[in-house]
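pasting for the record
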Amino acid sequence: MSLLDNDTRTQLTEMFETLNKPVKMVVFTQEFECQYCKETREIAEELSTLSDKISLEVYDFVADGDLADQYGVDKIPATVILEGGKAGKDYGIRYYGIPSGYEFSSLIHDVMMVSAGDPQLSAEMLDWLAELKTPVHLQVFVTPTCPYCPQAVLLAHKLAMASDLVQADMVEATEFPDLSNKYHVMGVPRTVINETIFQEGAAPEMMMLDKLKEAVAVAA
């Protein structure tokens, strides 16, 4: 049974007609699927049927552990969005947990962004990222019912696309309570930068730049 209604499928099919470069989704699940693993896989499967520019690979987190390590995937369900075709560039865009509710829009946006090859960041942010020497790991904690969370996720994923030194994870807070407790997630969105710096809410780009500079300074 389709997870998407006919109107949504039609709308997405029309959107995907504008895709430029191919996009690949890589989903990690397991034989006895975890909570929301099945639904996460099915979302990706449906999207991959809506355009010949979107491909999908599904792997078992345990049986294909070496590949999971290669992608840096350490929990499931996990979805990796990368360039398709022979190029296959991995921008460090990750989803941990089901990309449903408001986060479904983030997933669609990422497909469109990776296909277009343009993260659409300000010149100031791009200049700073071009000079970046320190790896940056962003973990954006969200829930599917949070209307402000996609803005935080999309900014993090734009940063990852713009720099090979940035990895950005969407983390569904209720699916990974241990992580939520570790980082004291009391509300969402909450972005954790390199384990030490925190940004509450859907911060504007320049506010996030200040937080990134702070995180890099701490790591230096």
